[in-house]
Design goal:
Length: about 350
């Protein structure tokens, strides 16, 4: 959108809500993604975008067209996120393996941890129509910067460092542009940006996450075998798909497991409580994902069990993040998935 198309009270004194909506709607998906990266929550990202549009509507008459309308919206959205982070009681959002040591041989008692803000997955359907070529010189490509591990890593950064990193290294803004948005000098932005990069370098020695890609035939076979192992309750078959040092986390439960042996022991213990599973393919954070439904007996309906995000490396599963009950139930609607599949089994999987 050109500056000439941006709303201005002098040019458009009879502005209506419908006209304003046409101006801001093209930016909704990319702003939601930016807010998700800032906040680590698809729920909070939805709320932040709504608040951004409300603030923009109230202030649009003061937008003087001296800069990009898109940048102005990002300024509002970033400030909304910073305010949200400042007000949040439980910060930052975490995955269990960033909070506690691995559980070893101890089995969980099934009690969800409610006093921790857990990281949430992001549906790939929300990434559709976002132009990933808009920042070809960015330090991180858009598809890398939405991976679950990357989003988890940046949640540990102080909010201003997180904002500067996203603006400069993901969106490819200059330090001067980021300083205008965040306040402060270009030198101060470069300083906090350097600290953010140094922190991330501990997680990513090569400077960036491994690039995600579309499943190749070997990876597709791996995912087919993964689905089959769950639906057959085949622990050995599941363990065979794991990298030797794989990790398994299951927020909102705090316990997590490292290594094939520990993960296998967990599933031998956990799967005894279920009659069967049904898995529905989906995608989250530019990674393969499944929605799992369980039932306690063959005459019971399938009920939402978990949303599972897989990290695949060299045709093995290196990390399995299973978003379990009750967190899973709040996530299924974002993936256009029902909470229950009736015995008639007439559910059509999302395209």
């Amino acid at each position: 959108m050109s500056v000439a198309e941006a709303p201005n009270s002098k040019r458009n004194p009879n502005r209506t809500g419908e006209e304003f909506g046409r101006l801001v709607e093209p930016f909704r998906r990319e702003l939601k993604l930016h807010c998700y990266r800032m906040l680590g929550s698809v729920h909070e990202a939805e709320d932040a975008v709504q608040e951004t549009f409300l603030r923009a509507w109230r202030a649009v008459d003061r937008f003087e067209g001296r800069g990009s309308f898109r940048a102005w919206l990002y300024q509002i959205a970033t400030n909304v996120c910073l305010n949200t982070l400042a007000a949040r009681k439980n910060a930052p959002r975490l995955l269990p393996n960033e909070w506690l040591p691995a559980a070893g041989a101890a089995m969980p008692d099934g009690t969800p941890v409610t006093d921790v803000s857990w990281l949430e997955p992001y549906p790939d359907s929300f990434l559709e129509s976002i132009d990933e070529s808009a920042n070809p010189e960015g330090r991180y490509l858009s598809r890398e910067a939405v991976q679950l591990a990357f989003v988890a890593a940046i949640q540990g950064l102080p909010p201003r460092q997180r904002a500067a990193l996203l603006l400069c290294d993901v969106l490819d803004w200059s330090a001067n542009e980021a300083a205008t948005l965040l306040g402060g000098t270009t030198a101060s932005i470069n300083s906090i940006l350097q600290r953010a990069r140094e922190t991330l370098s501990r997680r990513y020695p090569d400077g960036r996450p491994a690039a995600s890609h579309s499943p190749n035939p070997n990876e597709q076979e791996l995912l087919d075998r993964y689905l089959g192992a769950w639906e057959r309750l085949d622990v050995d078959g599941l363990v065979a798909l794991l990298k030797e040092d794989a990790t398994y986390t299951m927020p909102p439960l705090a316990q997590w497991y490292a290594g094939r042996t520990a993960i296998g022991n967990f599933f031998k213990w956990a799967w005894r409580s279920y009659d069967s599973f049904r898995l529905i393919r989906t995608a989250a954070n530019n990674q393969p994902a499944f929605a799992a439904y369980s039932r306690a007996s063959t005459d019971a309906p399938w009920t939402a069990h978990s949303l599972q995000v897989l990290t695949v490396e060299n045709d093995t599963v290196s990390a399995l993040t299973l978003f379990a009950k009750p967190l899973a139930q709040s996530l299924f609607p974002f993936f256009d998935l029902p909470h229950l599949i009736p015995l008639t089994d007439d559910f059509t999987e999302p395209a």
